[in-house]
Amino acid sequence: MNTIQRKSKRPAQRHIQTQPTAPESPFLNLPLELIYLITSHLPTESVACLSLCSHHLYSSLKTEYHLKTDSSFRIDNLHPPRDADSMTMNTFLHLLERDLPLHIIYPHCNKLHYTPLASRHLVTERYSPTTSQTWTKCRTRDSLGQGIQYTPPHFTSTIFLMAMKAYRQGRDTTKLLRLLSHKQINEDPEGFVELHTSEARIRNDSLLVRDQMVFMLPASLTTPFSLPAEFGSCKHVFLSSMADLRFCGIYVPRAEEMDDHVNKEGIIYCRYCYMEMRIDFKSYGKAGNAMFVTRWMDIGEGRDVNDVKWKVRLGGGNEWLWDDVIYPRGSICSAFEGRSSDDFKFDSLITEQDEMELCARCPLAAPEDEDEKDEDEVEPAYMVTEGRLIMLPSTGTGGCCDRSHQL
């Protein structure tokens, strides 16, 4: 037995002895004084990248430039210099990312994230000051953005950046885009059922998202105006719930008008960000009446942290995001759908199974305190003109749909 073991070890020992060693870089043979002279002309982040060449070089440079880490420098974990300021660290990580096809850098947390583990970064929980203190800044801002409905559920900036980098590299983005999509039916205690779907697509080098919320309301409710159903728009437009419809000049048909109702407002679009939306109504007879809120957003290319297309979707920031943007009305919808916005059918996204489930789960009667409310209690302060919310001159000051009036 011992003879067999000795014989089996000999080939492995010979392989180790004959394995060629990698040639040492001539650069490492230079005197340290000369290396220090060279690096004195480089920015700190470039010196940090140079230190990755070898442990010997890192050990020499970390003393001179204070490139400290938690313990020893670990290349496999890609630990950046701990004492570098935020901008330097960000630049350092960007230099690394260029040669790491499966990593992206998230600028708000200054960390590299690994694309094959994208599902770990999916944000599905609502941020809480007490239970979310250990969250990274990227996770926090995405959760806040979802909470105020600047983005749909499951939209995660980390996965957005991963998808766009994979797209630029010509790799398949199907799985990443699927992570950014969402579908869920919920029953609301206020007396309605809600179907929420979202889908992400890449068009013209940008990530576009379509988000639709369908509110199924009891047929006994003469008008859906009074229910406190909330939907998303953007940070610039106050139109974000059923209670805002009449105030913002959106005509809400009564139950007996649903069958013949025609959407005269069409697509409403923001003047400060790349967001379009439309609000439609449909009768399902005795099963209920539905309000469809469809929103399209252009999130951008994911190249620049200062791209307003992306920044405006994040929560928790204090950036000034009120500069006018110019784009043709209906262009985001057309790009996403692949056809003219005039040809979009608001009820084409809902399946027969979805309709059956919404009708089956919708309450037969509206809450007693809701059915007695009168929509005439609220006077319109705005009107929709060519897709813009325009303040009526007789309203003066007060609440507003366009939040810029509140500045």
In short:
With 407 residues, the chain is an alpha+beta fold.
Keyword list:
12 helices, 407 residues, alpha+beta
- With strands numbered from the N-terminus, the spatial order across the biggest sheet is 3-4-5-8-7-6
> What global shape is seen?
elongated
Roughly what percent helix? 25-40%
- Rg, rounded, reads 28 Å
Largest sheet: 6 strands, antiparallel
Mean pLDDT metric: 81
Counting H and I runs of at least 4 residues, what is the number of helices?
Answer: 12
Residue fraction in strands:
15-25%
- Structural class computed from helices and strand pairing: alpha+beta
Give the tally of structural domains: 3
Low-pLDDT regions: 11-16, 68-84
Descriptive account of the structure:
There is one protein chain. This protein has 407 residues and is an alpha+beta fold. It has 3 domains: 29-99, no CATH class; 100-180, no CATH class; 181-298 and 319-406, no CATH class. Helices cover 27% and strands 17% of the residues. The chain contains 12 helices and 10 strands. The protein has helices at 2-18, 32-39, 44-50, 55-65, 86-97, 137-147, 157-168, 174-179, 308-311, 331-337, 352-361, 368-371; strands at residues 103-106, 111-114, 182-188, 192-203, 206-217, 268-269, 275-283, 289-300, 382-385, 388-391. The strands form 3 sheets. Strands 3-4-5-8-7-6 form a 6-stranded antiparallel sheet. Strand 7 and strand 8 form a beta hairpin. It is elongated. The model is unreliable at 11-16 and 68-84 (pLDDT under 50).
